[in-house]
Amino acid sequence: MRFSSLFSSLTAVLAASTAAVLAQSPLPTPKFEALFAGQFTISSSPNTTGPFGTRVHFVISGGTLADATTGKTVATILPFADDGIVSDSGLFFPDSFLPITWSVDGHLASIKVTGIGNLNNGSMSYAHVETDSPTYSWMNSNFFITKLSATNPTQPTFTIYGVANATTKY
């Protein structure tokens, strides 16, 4: 008797769990839209050979960040360094903090970029933004992807993409 009562309870729980799982629909596939386009200038590149390849120390003298739609400059990129690795197989693993000053309010931001790619064909990176700018504070809690193109090795360009179909819109 106890066994049948326990069995009935477990069956009910299992049936309810199965129904809940079947009722779930997959989340929509993220779609990305270009938010910002930028360029910076590499002024030198001292390198260190390591066990996985070459640790690059790209010294960047600065650059600009523009609205991807209007082309209007929205920030100045301050000098920084990319201390990524170019592996022996040719893959590039960028690792940098881009310090910027927003044109609209003069506030600063740090954009942490890490990823993987190829210096010649481009690299994709995750970007995390931290800023105290009232205008751009929405960036603190959003997900970004960057695409770097280094067809001109001394003046790479990049685009920052945000999720277009996010539930919390920037």
TrEMBL record:
For this UniProt record, give its keywords in alphabetical order, as a comma-separated list.
Signal
As given in the record, the signal peptide range reads 1-23
Q: What is this protein called?
A: Lipocalin-like domain-containing protein
Q: Give the originating organism.
A: Ganoderma sinense ZZ0214-1
